[in-house]
Amino acid sequence: MRDGGKKVGGAYGLDNLWKGDVDLQYFSKWGVAWQLTQQAFRSLCASPFTSILALLTITVVMLLVGALLLVSQHTYGLMADAGRGLTISVYLKDAAAESEVAGLKQAIQAAPQVAEVRYISKDEALKSFHKSLGEQAGLLEGLETDNPLPASVEVTLGQERLDQEGFEQFAASFRENPAVESIQYDRGLVGQAAALFHFFGSVGLGAAALLLLLAAFIITNTIRLMLYARRHEIVIMRMVGATAGFVIAPCLIEGCALGLLGAVAGLVVLYFLFLLLTGLLAQLELVRAILPQLTFLPWYYVFLVILMGVAVGAAGSFMAVRRLADE
């Protein structure tokens, strides 16, 4: 029981407390919190092999989560560029009045998803068509006096996400305009890009969830091994009146510490790998053309990875000690 009392009293054993050698402020809320934190790190250091193995595994898992976010960031960036470069052609009626065309252009420019509006007259359309035919341009002889091509308004979008329904709604909002003959855009491109966007989003979310579950599983089993090694100590602590919370708190701190350290270590490794890969990829012209600027995770993604590491650590450790919580 003397050993048990020493365990409960921690660094301030009961003998010292009775002798008055310990300042009672250490048993305040902050003092108890500090004592539990010390106990948690002593437990981690008491099983170095298990702790290091768990930490390395969690580091790899959080490294993969960070890499997944990094790939998703640049994939969505490519899709945003595709959305910003998409052009919609609004063909005008020959009988449309100048005031109607001017009103249409003004209404299109006011739309938040529009980046640029360019008016193409009938003559400009014919010249462009003539140039595109090349050697066969002679087929257009005689059309200068009776130009069948309509004038149009070319709309370049600046939105960052390809959404087929959004494009349909945008086109429908101007289709009933009295100056509009028809509206055309590449529906196939929009549909395929939107499908890819949702596919990558679903796959990324599923992969991240599996990796986080794996991290929680590793932490759960690590804490269980530590609890098994301390089973006699825990029995003595409960016999002398230690509450379940006093026993569980160090375990939760251990899990959070493993998650935090694993997340930080994973991000550090990811950063150096990113520097190495960007140096190698910068030498490839194709990569420079597709991804002219490779950037690391922004601060809020870094914070998210760290937060996920702590949350997974807390969840994993709670799963390991939930039986004690019910007692």
Characterise this structure.
With 327 residues, the protein is α+β, with helices and mostly antiparallel strands. It folds into 2 domains: 2-80 and 194-326, no CATH class; 87-185, Alpha-Beta Plaits. It is 70% helix and 7% strand. The protein has 12 helices and 4 strands. The chain has a 4-stranded antiparallel β-sheet. Residues 1-26 have low confidence and may be disordered.
**What fraction, in percent, of the residue positions are helical?**
over 70%
Backbone shape: elongated
Summed up, the domain count is 2
Could you tell me the number of beta strands?
A: 4
Alpha-beta content class: alpha+beta
- For the CA atoms, what is the radius of gyration? 33 Å
* Spatial separation of the terminal alpha carbons: 22 Å
Largest sheet: 4 strands, antiparallel
Oligomer: single chain
Return the string of H and E elements: HHHHEHEHEHEHHHHH
Mean pLDDT: 73
Walk across the major sheet and give the strand order.
2-3-1-4
Strand content: 5-15%
How large is the count of helical segments?
12
Low-confidence stretches: 1-26
